[in-house]
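Hey everyone, long-time lurker, first post.

I ran two proteins through the pipeline my lab uses and got sequence/structure pairs for each. Pasting them in order. The first:
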Amino acid sequence: MKQISKEKGTLSRLASYLSGYRAAMIFACVSAVVSVVAGLCGPILIGRAVDCMLGKGSVDFGRLGGILVGLGVVYAINVVFQWTLTFITSKVSYQAAQGLRRDGFAKLRRFPLRYFDTHARGDVISRFVNDCDTISDGLIQSLSVLLTGVVTVAGALGFMLYINVWITLIVVATTPLSIWVAKFISSHSRRMFREQSAIVGELSGIVEEMVGGQKTVKAFCYEGTANARFRETNARLKTVGVKAQFYSSLTNPTTRYINNLIYILLGVVGGLFAIQARISVGDLSSFLIYSTQFAKPVNEITGVITQLQASLASARRIFELLDGEEETPDVLGRPLPSDVQGHIVFDNVSFAYQPSRPLIRHLSLDIPAGSKVAIVGTTGAGKTTLVNLLMRFYDVDEGRILLDGTDIRDFPRDWLRQNFGMVLQDTWLFHGTIAENIAYGKPDATREDIIVAAKAAHAHSFIRRLEKGYDTVITQDGENLSQGQKQLLTIARIMLVDPPMVILDEATSNIDTLTEIKVQQAFLQMTQGRTSFVIAHRLSTIREADRILLMENGDVVESGTHEELLERKGKYHALYHSQFARAEGDGQTA
């Protein structure tokens, strides 16, 4: 019962996406009625035509000719309005799928970063592409069948009752058998369609992962393992898909078989009635045609059950996305500071990505405005987590983070992030020109502003050597640029925005030593008087910081300047000599 309730809930929500096209649906219903009524007039005219042919040499050609003209008219009307119905249902179905994609994409913008950390990108993409296509295909078929089916069943039943009540009772009594068989089979195939949709999402994730990381795949000779993973998942999809299609495909031929048996029974009983002169041969011909039309919607509905079940399974996956937990709403209406100083305070902050594994516990820090803070520590110490909390990619579990004395949760996220410039080790560029990528955070920037920022990031020289300069189109993720060039562009992007606070997360890790020295000089100028957080292992970055935080298991275990921490000969001293002293001895200032 619970599963049936879920199916009804999914179907109800899916139907809500059609409610906005009420006028079109009304016209579709009218088209269905006109088309079906015209089609139902045909058999009665055929019966009349049969009765015009009494025997050899005894044919009423005058009356027969009028009937044939009438048949041509009603079937022409049937064809026109059937086309209209198909056109409207197709348009409404694709518009409904468009609405689902629109709402889904809008939902993505409201998801917290945690959602993307716990869901495969390929599976999310599959919900927008494969699942929405499955829904639109299912709606196109089911809407047309349902609209015409109801009218056809009612109309055919009415005409059969008009011709002969007793034979009609045989049809009514035996039809539930077809419906029961269809329901029995579909209930067993429903689970397989849900599993099929889930595996399609998993397979999309594997393909996206392999295509996106092709260089890494080849570098580690992972092709064999990747192929094995793909084949295993693809084999599961084939197995489940074949089972789902096999069981669901039993529905239509089984119901057709039962309907044919019923048709034989009607022919025998009708023949006996005709022999007894209780029904004419023409009326019996019309009745048999109507019995076929009466059964046709049942067969068609059972035929689209396969597609409808797949659509419901896909709709459930999309609604799971739409029902996902969103970010806590921003506090709006509060006056925003016109001048950000950059005084940051971590006040008794605790945070965990997973509640069972706390990472940061009761952390308190006071970072004066304009200071440069370097954060060091081993992998997993919590360095990037501090940045995530500052940017409100995640919110603290306990305590608070203050910006100029105000809890950052009292600021809109967009405003807060606009006041931070962030350069990551992992670069991200989009398909567009060099200029468009640099101006990503400031779309209204002039070409002169873009060039100034590129020169400050020491990217101007390599951009100028490109065939079209700043108008050179780069591929998605900048695959036609070197890693160092891509990082220079992301640095120029921040220099163009010129924010009051800066976060540098291994921002120069992919740049050669000579260029890095120049970029570091630009950074010194950019961070002058600005609060800046630097996550890096380069000597010059650490030495020039006003304060160095050594993190371990989410806690700041040591804090001070480079010289102060070396004099203490604690954990920073050991870390420095294990990672940096040799480089310093070689004369590297990075």
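...and the second, right after it:
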Amino acid sequence: MRSTRQIGSRVALVAAVALALGMGVAPASAHPPRPGHSEKVPVATGYGGAVTTVDADATRVGLDVLRRGGNAVDAAVAAAATLGVTEPFSAGIGGGGFFVYYDAATGQVHTIDGRETAPMTMQSDAFVEDGVPIPFAEAVTSGLSVGVPGTPRTWATALDRWGSLDLRQALRGATEVARRGFVVDQTFVDQTTANAARFAAFRSSADLFLRHGAPPAVGSVFRNRDLAETYDVLAYRGVYAFYTGRLAREIVRTAQRPPVSRRSPLVVRPGLLELSDLASYEAPLRAPTLVSYRGFDVYGMAPPSSGGSTVGEALNILEARPGGPFDATQTLHGYLEASALAFADRNRYVGDPSFVDVPLEQLLSDGFAAERACLIDPAVALVKPVAPGAPDGDYAACEPATVGTEVSDGQSTTHLTTADRWGNVVAYTLTIESLGGNGIVVPGRGFLLNNELTDFNFTETQGGSDPNLPGPGKRPRSSMAPTIVLADGKPYLALGSPGGSTIITTVLQILVNRLDLGMDLPAAVAAPRATQRNTAAVQAEPGFDRTALQALGHVFTDNPEIGAATAIEFLPGGALLAVAEPARRGGGSAAVVHGG
């Protein structure tokens, strides 16, 4: 077993290299700069706080908040609001997310559940017509898929409880980016192009994203003055303006009567959202999940997210696995097998805890982990999908694995990580679900609505006990896995990723890369990925080495890109190592307040 001190010391060389490469950040100006090319730097080392996101503008805005005396929560909200401008197809005030916060003053980890909720009129058969599930693409691009957005309430809750700024101050930088504009890159063009047919079907979406009948050009400046004005409403009237009043009525009208072009060939179903659904929305605080792994305390998000429970269970399985120490092949073999087993249990047991009795304590127990770990054979891979276990507190001899069923989720989200000079830390994952959400911009408001309700299972998949069917006021199961790791009670690592259900395996693989395989954090994030979610084949990026694992019976299929993580590691002496993707999703942006 590696000690915390041993692992921490290995980053010294990484820090020196980062400094040699000039990975600091230019001093902040009094006002955000005019639109220009912002270079993305994926690794930064230094002091005084750090921000890492997928976007250079969002990172800059968050960092400016830290430099002006704001804390990690302030910076996280400011960066998230900016991502709503520059990454509108992945996140924004029309969606939701999960916020994990380490409070340096108390040493405690807190979480906010900002997951979207189903309308109170939604029933378990909402996505079924004539006894048959409606086509998934038609469910996505509809008013029916819209859940009550949780992101604005999450921001207000976080700032009220732990921030030093109010919402008006936190939104200032993002509002300037929306009003002045940002420079369009290839990723923005590609994502707009991927949604062009859907956007063209709605007048409001086409007016914003296809202003001349086509996606904007690389290098052009994209402005979203409607969103700037919407942010002004929230800044000066408060978050209640989103959930009541005129703006709420416009959101409901858009979901109930989508502004479909008369020429559109798409079948667009109306939604069930009501004003009362928005007015009653809450973003509750929930106790985080917690497991111990290799001497570290790993905190994550509890249900309705399956991120914390599934990452935690998989880590427990790996630690309970007999034998070892393991070489790289056996470590990755264990990672894939533990992922499959944990996903089988996730699919069977995890849902909204207000509606489902989730056996969370047992799912994260050492006894259950040992019962599942005994199924891992070092010589041959399990036949997938495997059946779920029985987290019932009665853990006896190992029983043969049986066949289960597959379940899948959506794919588009974003994640950011922040830390401040006082030692506070935020890992925040937010989303509008599919790339481009439901495809519908609220007219005159500049933001897309989510399609989060398609995260529900459309029909029963668990033999009469499916925890993730739709229901009135219910929150669909999520895979978001914002994670904070403590060593001896102090922050050691904070991370997360987008990617639907691959979020879980991305976070898990980065942890395995860092804590088990001894990679430094930049290498752990950049390393080729593979994702096993209890499916017959493992999806893997082209660079992932498959040969030795294929010899054990693992079957592979190609996935060009898995996840887009951001992370911060806390180095000896108070230094911070901020890391983003070097290439995936166009690369990310990491920065620190003081380089060196």
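Reply from user beta_strand_b:
Welcome! Quick read of the second one: Residues 328-349 form the longest helix (22 residues). The longest strand covers residues 43-53.
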